[in-house]
Amino acid sequence: MVERIVVLGGGTGGTLAANRLRRVLDDRVQIVVVDQDDSHVYQPGLLFVPFGLARLDEIIRPRQRQLRRGIDYRQAAIERVDLETERVWLGDGTALEYDVLVVATGSTLVAEETEGLLGPGWLEKVFTFYTPEGAAGLHDAFTWFDGGRLVVNVVDMPIKCPVAPLEFCFLADWYFQELGIRDRVGITYVTPLDGAFTKPVASATLAGLLEEKGVELVTEFNTGEVDGPGGRLVSYDGREVGFDLAVVVPLHSGAAYVGRSPGLGDELNFVPTDEHTLQSKARQNVFVIGDAANLPVSKAGSVTHFEGEILVENIRRFLSGKPLDGSYDGHANCFIESGFHKALLIDFNYETEPLPGHFPTSVGLPLLKESRLNHLGKLMFQSFYWHRLLPGRDIPGVGSAMPDRGKHREPSRS
């Protein structure tokens, strides 16, 4: 009897997982991928759209075309998952039975949870670059914005790609210098964190870079209201930050259907997941990849890529009745575009914060340091994404485990 694997979500995680499963398991299983639309967005590219460095037609492709031959694609909304009967109910009233379920529906923006964010001023002087519509709107807004205060605001964590708002600040500094109006533009980064980033060493480096570029840093600001007409961000403790143009990263949650699926998710609709096996804590035959999981790791494409190897191996083991591989270590890395054809690179996992050095060995790309080489790596990643990451191909020399060689650690202090 052929077993059926249903993959919910045709984004980065769902696509690479389905393709890896097809390659590893061949025709021993039936694989079905479900998503509500057929537009696969290369999300790192959205950062570049406002600055005219990318176009939407360059970063959006059909989902179905990214899947290997032999994988079924079902375009439909997901109503709920019934863990007891092992069925996925779709928006059209039909149901898909599964032997193994892969939850890969990522995270979604819930801008409506912040007072005023979607009110007057939305897509006029208040934008987000986390959606195609918002990124394109910002590109248009930059044609009339000739000075004033630009505020980049993260409402709350977690968010997709936590370094992207910082990258936006760095690129804005470069962009307005190129236009010759940087002296007329004040740039402010407003974050709920107590620093520029979540990890101390990287936070210090990035805060220093913000200061070097003349970007004001406002920390521990918990946005309760966005007043578009008045040009104000208002925190829950009453503090205010004024703006002429606001770039807001809204609250994130898991997919709405998770909340309609008893036992599957938590209060934010993320799926409780084992940190090392990627098996859900709800049922043994449910696995989770990417932003949909509640893991204590960045919600970034590289994390999904590193998870894919372990996830597919564990589904293979589960179907064979073997113990699962518990070796996933939370590995994540990310290029941080810093403007002027330079970028930084960070590499870390559950236990090790981003450190200086090189990746993946002592003669590799520089870590926590601006370089043109990292900038080229950031640009090359788009081709790598479509042609190696999504198809589920292995990368020689780069595995799921974080490499320790090449990192510079401070000597321990007694």
What is the element layout, followed by pairings?
Layout: E1 3-8, H1 12-25, E2 29-35, E3 39-41, H2 56-59, E4 60-62, E5 72-75, E6 78-82, E7 87-90, E8 95-97, E9 100-103, E10 107-109, E11 126-127, H3 132-141, E12 148-154, H4 164-179, E13 185-190, H5 200-212, E14 215-218, E15 223-227, E16 232-235, E17 240-242, E18 245-249, E19 252-254, H6 256-259, E20 286-288, H7 301-320, E21 332-339, E22 342-348, E23 357-359, E24 365-367, H8 372-389
Explain this structure:
This protein has 414 residues and is of the alpha/beta class. The protein folds into 2 domains: 3-109 and 253-320, 3-Layer(bba) Sandwich (FAD/NAD(P)-binding domain), CATH 3.50.50; 111-251, 3-Layer(bba) Sandwich (FAD/NAD(P)-binding domain), CATH 3.50.50. The protein contains 8 helices and 24 strands. The chain has a 5-stranded parallel β-sheet with strand order 5-2-1-9-20, covered by helices on one side. Strands 11-18-12-13-14 form a 5-stranded parallel β-sheet. Strand 1, helix 1 (12-25) and strand 2 form a beta-alpha-beta unit. Helix 1 packs parallel to helix 7.
